[in-house]
Amino acid sequence: MKPLAPPPLSLLDKYTGQEIEPLYMTTVKVVGGEAGHGRASGVARSDDGNLDLPLRLPVELGGPGGGTNPEQLFAAGFAACFHGVVSLLAAKANLSAAGATVEATVSFARDPVDGMYLLTSVLKVCLPGLQQARAEELVRNAERVCPYAKMAREGMLNVVTLV
After folding, report:
1. What's the sign of the alpha-carbon dihedral 141, 144, 145, 147?
2. I need a labelling partner for 126 at 20 to 30 A (CA). Which of 11, 18, 114, 137 fits?
């Protein structure tokens, strides 16, 4: 088995194409489960089989808990992506990001604008061993590069189709 390694720094190279160029795609299907409701009792499975998780409504939303939920999955993705970008940017600048942590807090909340729902997120980044100014620069740059941060700031291309 090949040892685990970070991705190449070439991922930070600017793209100059005219169209979106997918580098990786995945598909996750959610089925409704016992309650017939994906969020309350569903199962999330990826097309490659690496993700197979029961979904449960958290106690705070009236559910039984005991499984993961979309907010936890989003927080995990956001924190992992941001950590990866900070690590790549540090490596490119010949800085050590050893011991770096990123904590994402995602809230499922009521939206006062339309009375429905929205998500909020807060990231806490810890970069031990780096001077404050360098750490702040890395985080600012990571906010510009990380696709999750970009999506949280600008939205994303979203297509919904009925099949």
Report:
1. positive
2. 11
SS3 content of the chain, % helix, strand, coil (to 5): 35, 20, 45
pTM for this entry: 0.92
Whether residue 51 contacts residue 71, with contact meaning beta carbons closer than 8 Å, is answered with: no
Can you list the positions of beta strands (E) in the chain? 28-31, 43-46, 52-54, 101-110, 117-126
3-state secondary structure of 44: strand
DSSP 3-state assignment of 56? coil
Neighbours of 144 (CB within 10 A): 11
Instruction: Take residue 96 and report the two structure tokens written for it.
Output: 């050590």
Read off the pLDDT of residues 12-42 as tens digits, 9 standing for 90 and up: 999 999 999 999 999 999 999 999 999 999 9
Nearest to 54 by CA among 63, 42, 38, 64: 42
Provide the residue type at 42 as one letter.
G
Q: Please say whether the beta carbons of 106 and 121 come within 8 A.
A: yes
Domains of the chain plus CATH, in order, are 26-68 (2.20.25), 69-156 (3.30.300.20)
